[in-house]
Amino acid sequence: MTRHLRRARLLLLPLFAGAMAATVALATPAAAAVWSSSDQWGTWQNGGYTLYNDVWGSGHGPQTIWANSFSNWGVWANHPNTGGVKSYPNCTRFVGRTLTALHGVTSNFNVTVPGSGAYETAYDIWDSGNANEIMLWMNKTGAVGPLGSFQTTVSAGGHTWDVYRGSNGSNQVISLLRHGNTSSGSVDVLAVLNWIRGKGWFGDITLGNVQFGYEITSSSGGLNFTTNSFSVSFS
After folding, report:
1. Residue/partner pairs of 159-168 with CB below 8 Å, 24 or more apart
2. What pLDDT score was predicted for residue 28?
3. 219: nearest Cα among 107, 139, 141
4. I need a labelling partner for 32 at 20 to 30 A (CA). Which of 25, 71, 200, 215 fits?
5. pLDDT tens digits, residue range 159-199?
6. Sorting pLDDT into bands at 50, 70 and 90, what band is 29?
7. What is the value of pTM for the model shown?
8. How far is CA 80 from CA 24, 55, 116, 234, in A?
9. Is 96 exposed, middle or buried (0-12, 13-18, 19+ CB in 10 A)?
């Protein structure tokens, strides 16, 4: 083999490696998805839902959200191992009816989440005036905890929860932490809200946004969070 041919062959090796790397990159969920965004406030509307990248906390790192539909989406996040929530990538459906005008509000979800980092998979539910925030924690990992003080334990909406209540200075926050982590299931949202109403913590509020996503405190090195399916139904 001549020196010229040997050199040409050696030059092909990095080109081949680069092509392989590009192929791998294209195979990532974000690259193959219908929509993706690394913008801090990236949004996308689909099927009556809105997806938000929602990187809002101080000291955050890079984060990319991707989606094939409102039901199938996910996030790659690389937030440092420091305290404080960095982001809440989520999918939102607006309801816009009072509790007494609703016959039912249910939601189903199925997720694949990492075994490291600090985060929770949670619903974040608001009244239309954003005076009341109700969080339903379906699973949690790492050093994360709810706002406020422990109130009681209750079985409502198909799950058993530890209930916390407090304020963030702008609105009331009621957090229900599920007994035991789950990566899939169904929640009777209206039953939970009516239980809270029965406690006198709010009245016949107008249900606004029902959000579902990942409240991420840290995901150092880059972690993937995948929503395999998700939906909210109301009548």
Report:
1. 159/185, 159/187, 161/136, 165/201, 168/133
2. 67
3. 141
4. 215
5. 999 999 999 999 999 999 999 999 999 999 999 999 999 99
6. confident
7. 0.88
8. 25, 13, 13, 38
9. exposed
3-class SS string, 2-60: CHHHHHHHHHHHHHHHHHHHHHHHHCCHHHHCCEEECCCCCEEEECCEEEECCECCCCC
Q: What is the DSSP letter of 87?
A: B
Helix (H, G, I), strand (E, B) or coil at 227: strand
Q: In this structure, what token pair is assigned to residue 218? A: 């840290």
The kind and range of the H/E element at 72 are none
Place of tokens 């150092």: 220
d(CA 93, CA 202): 21
Strands 132-141 and 118-127: antiparallel
pLDDT tens-digit profile of 208-224? 999 999 999 999 999 99
